[in-house]
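Slide 14.
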Amino acid sequence: MERRNSSSRHETDPSCGLISVVGTGIGSVENMTPQAVDALAAADVIIGYATYLDLIPELLAGKEVITSAMMQEVDRCKKSFDLAENGKHVVLVSGGDPGIYAMAGLILEIAAKRDSKVKIDVIPGIAAVNGCAARLGAPLMHDFAAISLSDLLTPWDLITKRLEAAASADFVIALYNPKSKKRTEHIVEARKILLSHRDKETPVGIVTGASRDNEVIRLTSLEKMLEEEINMQSTVIIGNSTTFSWNGYMITPRGYKDKYKLSKNR
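Slide 15: predicted structure.
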């Protein structure tokens, strides 16, 4: 079977520019990929949510920068197409990975709606779930699910169905958007659902502001997790039935002990 490269996915107009949807990772330049840094360096215009752009000021020097506030994602995408259709190389910035609760899906939805001839590249970044898991140790070594608790775009009853399904199937669960100033009860309900399927001592890791100056890492239990500060900069990782903590690490075994002899001396 012939393998098609990215440039042949859809018909593009050579008179148009390029939209690069770039993931800036978990919050610091050190955690960005070289491909993402190169895309920013090559851009004519950089567009993004102000909070994310504020984290990478050294990469914006000398560039035309367009910022906007939260919940203006559609406007950012439309502006990207307007500029790219006039020959500009536009970098549309996402935090984390652009394909995980971020801008890649929306830009492609709008491209399909417009039947756009602009070339689009999606450049990956380190997602919050990866970066936070690394801070905690190895909580994602077995099957896991990522679930956002924000009901801004997804009905809450659908979110609870997914929580029930993932909890009953013993997935490690990473919670995105766990709690905002106005939305305080969803994390309480999520914990209640999880407690109906898991032991109260199940390890829970909470990472807030990963790789930023305000980074906080907490390792607690399902029973006590609500005693910790949780906000929109937090990612909450709930272990499965085999997850354990040791020396400040959160560890989910993959099953090596059942296949190989693991001992202190070997």
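Speaker note: The longest helix spans residues 156-168.
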